[in-house]
Amino acid sequence: MSTYFRRAFSYRNFVLLRSYALYGHDLSRIIETPINICNSDVNRVFSVPVTNFIKESRRAFAKGRKSKDEAGVSTIEVPPDVGPTIKANSISQMEAAIAALLTELNKLRTGRASPGMLDHIIVETGGVKMSLNHIAVVSVIDPKTLSVNPYDPQTLKQLENAIVSSPLGLNPRVDGDRLIAAIPPLTKEHMQAMNKLVAKSCEDARQSIRRARQKAMDAIKKLYSSLPKDDIKRLEKEVDELTKKFIKNAEDICKAKEKEISQG
């Protein structure tokens, strides 16, 4: 409506000036002469200079065009690609679950000697508690015998006491500046108890991997409004494939441990 009135007044000004020019009137006098606009309701007369009227009409029209141009400018925000970050976090958490599983399984004594089976033993020396692998080197002499070589021979007695006190059931003997630990054969009851611990450790690893999957899926759900549906489905599928891969890895590790226990 405002555009219509502006155009109407502009056309009126053009016709007014053109008619005065055709009939030989002095345009300079007309432009400087006020226009009397009568309001019939209140019988009052307003004087508006023609020059100002034309200038204001053109200025208002130009201002409207300018705001239209400015309104046409828009910015598009492109969401960042957070898919690789979500996958990387999932892989890190699942790898941590596998590492924790290996640590737990190494604590279990089987019929075969393994240097990692003593790593979890805590030794107190000089009023400080440390893991055995921080103060001694454990090596395999044969499939049934371990050698424990301390960095400081003065800690030999503390190492012996810690190994005897552990639930592994080992009785090492002193051989010069080292300890020799023979691995006794497993009883049937011991094998059954070890297999139960392996099954529990495997289930704990599965749960940790599934929690990592759930965290990834929760992060993906927050992207529903910013990513295409196909990208969301692809990312969910990749996380599911990672979950299956790591769960299978954990189960294979536990099966190998059970086989090792059964062989005594």
Automatic annotation (TrEMBL):
Main location: cytoplasm
The keyword Cytoplasm is assigned to this record: yes
Protein known as: Ribosome-recycling factor, chloroplastic
Origin organism lineage: Eukaryota, Viridiplantae, Streptophyta, Embryophyta, Tracheophyta
Function, in words: Responsible for the release of ribosomes from messenger RNA at the termination of chloroplastic protein biosynthesis.
Any one GO BP annotation for this protein: translation
Location(s), subcellular: Cytoplasm
Coiled coil: 202-252
GO cellular component, one term: mitochondrion
